[in-house]
Each structure stands twice: as C-alpha cells, then as structure tokens.
Specification:
- The chain has about 160 residues and is α/β, with parallel strands linked by helices.
- The protein contains five helices and six strands.
- It has a six-stranded mixed sheet with strand order 1-4-3-2-5-6, sandwiched between helices.
- Helix 1 crosses helix 5 and helix 3 runs parallel beside helix 4.
Length: about 160
C-alpha cells in the first residue's frame, strides 16, 4: 500500500485560471532512475492544483519514489508489483514516454511494468523524453519545463469543470 507523506495536505498553490477539478482526481506519476523528472512533474502538479488532487508517486526504484515524495506526493510505492496493484486506482498517469517501453531507463522499466501502464484504463499523459537511442519524429525540441507545463495544461483541460 502506498505510504502517506508527512504532509498529506500540501499548501494550495496558484491555479490554472478558472480550473475547478470535477472531483479529487488521483494522478499517478511514474518515474525511475534518479527520480528528478517525476519530482518535477509532482512539484508542478502541486503548484497548479494544490491539494485539489491526490498525487501517487510510483517509482521503478526507491530513489525515484523518494524524490517524488519530497516533491509533495501524497503517497508513494515502489516497484513493478506496486505499480501493477495501484495503477488501476488512478484516474491519470503521467511520466516519460519510456514508461511504456520494456527495458527502458537502463532496464528499470520491466516488461510487466510497461504492460501495466499500457493496460491501465486511465488517461495517460506521456512526455516525449527518453534516454534511449530513439528519436520521436515530429516532436519540437522543447525544454523539460515547457513539456511538463504543456502536459499539465492538457490535463487541466480534461479534468476541470468548464
């Protein structure tokens, strides 16, 4: 079961103008390696939505989970089995596109983890960055912060009342 963070009630931050979430949406953020990318997504989600959403840090390793917890995720769990068990309870998944590729992130993304992400009946907001030797044709060369902001804007459009 994901662990509760010391501060389940994060301070409310600035909101996307006019965004009132339909419900307390659970957003699962998945990352591996050092967890900096997942932490950046978690911090931006918390800044934009405050405590109006619940953020689950699902790490391929404990370092990634810990980084996302420090960034104010509500709960955290580590490893393929934890992701398989908890992902169906989330409404949204966010992370790098590589979480859908078996053996990506220096082998941390197991075939079972990638399958769990793809089989989950959740909205998926996958950010097109990768350390793999793969080029995503048609993608602009944007900074990480711009890609994360764009993903969160698209999320807000999907989950906020008009």
């Amino acid at each position: 079961m994901p662990e509760n963070s010391a501060s389940d009630k994060a301070a409310s931050g600035p909101r996307i103008s006019g965004c009132i979430p339909r419900d307390r949406t659970i957003v699962a953020v998945i990352d591996g390696l050092g967890g900096e990318f997942g932490a950046a997504i978690t911090m931006e989600l918390r800044k934009i939505f405050g405590d109006a959403i619940e953020i689950w840090a699902l790490g391929a390793n404990s370092t990634a989970t810990g980084m996302m917890m420090k960034a104010k995720a509500n709960r955290g769990a580590t490893g393929e089995n934890a992701i398989r068990v908890y992902l169906p309870g989330a409404k949204v998944v966010m992370g790098p596109i590589a979480i859908t590729w078996a053996n990506a992130m220096m082998g941390e993304i197991t075939p079972g983890l990638a399958e769990a992400v793809m089989k989950a009946e959740t909205l998926k907001f996958l950010i097109p960055i990768s350390q793999e030797n793969i080029t995503l044709v048609g993608q602009k060369n944007e900074t990480l912060s711009i890609l994360i902001s764009d993903a969160i804007r698209q999320l807000a459009r999907r989950m906020c009342l008009p």
